[in-house]
Amino acid sequence: MTTLLTHLDIDRPILAAPMAGGASTPALVTATARAGGLGFLAGGYKSAQALAGQIHTVESEGVPFGVNLFARNPIPVPPKAYQDYARLLQNEADRYGLTLSDTAPLDDDDHWADKIALLVAHPVPWVSFTFGIPDAGTVTSLRRAGTTVLQCVTTPAEARLAVDAGVDALIVQGPAAGGHSATLTPERPVTSIALPDLVTAVRHTVALPVIATGGIATPADVAAVLQAGAQAAMVGTVLLRTDESGASAPHKAALADPDFDTTVITRAFTGRPARALRNHFTDRYSAHAPAGYPALHHLTSPLRKAATAAGDTDLIHLWAGTGFRQARTEPVAHTAERLTGRL
């Protein structure tokens, strides 16, 4: 468990995953570092200015940290499929007096150029990418600025592409992960494979250091990926109920609610495959949702925000990995100790 972690003075092989949408607060990132691990700010769905503010907050605490960005990999959606889905969802939107846009699908690049410019001009220790692989020039610019660059991959083939782009290390994500899959081919079904087996397969394919993520929620899970050759375990869902998490109150409550007893992979909320607690929305709309990101994300966003404000868990994207029952109301430091204390 050497070079990848020790050069940043990390004592515990536990990383806090970047959870876009509010869960990965500066407080959570800072608490993870103070527990001996490393936290990542989620740059997704933020402007460069907002991300800069969060970077400043964590830097002022004097701890190591990373930043994650969504690398552009859009999924075009046929206008008619988009319009049909918008009209289907309108019945739910009517509950909150919303009118969902059924005109042209909205596309954007999540302020990509501005965020890269920020991170080159104001380097942070680690930067990771998901959804797509940045071009080699971007990777080179960040590395020249002193940043260690990581790429999230879900298959050995994706790992080869990441090596070609010149990244320093890989975050290998298994299909049990909560929230969006990092797959580079989101229009295809997510392959079922145990995370330790995926780590082994990637390590047999490429020589880069590996961090494992996806469904890690117990000390046994951490030990299994380390034994498979990962240098650290990255966790997300297990941190969602911690004191420092910015997850919404309905989301935190649902993770402990016995009425929510399973997770499903769905593209109903955003047009990209993502694992969430099964609820009315996943049951009703998963079979109807077209592939289309970020168009479907923008389409459903007003409805999801209204439902969250109302505590309506029927319509909220309750992102959760398969180990969601292990999420506890406690400080991040306690979770980190619980997962790695005996290593």
Structure characterization notes:
The chain is globular, with a radius of gyration of 19 Å. Helix 2 (26-34) links the parallel strand 1 (14-16) and strand 2. The protein has 343 residues and is an alpha/beta fold. Helices cover 37% and strands 14% of the residues. The relative contact order is 0.16. The protein has a domain at 3-72 and 109-238 and 327-340: Aldolase class I (TIM Barrel, Alpha-Beta Barrel). The model has no long low-confidence stretch (mean pLDDT 95). The protein has helices at 3-6, 26-34, 48-59, 79-93, 112-121, 136-144, 156-165, 195-205, 219-227, 249-256, 280-285, 295-310, 332-340; strands at 14-16, 38-42, 65-70, 126-130, 148-153, 169-173, 179-180, 210-213, 232-235, 263-266, 274-277. The strands form 2 sheets. Strands 1-2-3-4-5-6-8-9 form an 8-stranded parallel β-barrel, surrounded by 8 helices. Strands 7-11-10 form a 3-stranded antiparallel sheet, with no helix packed on it.
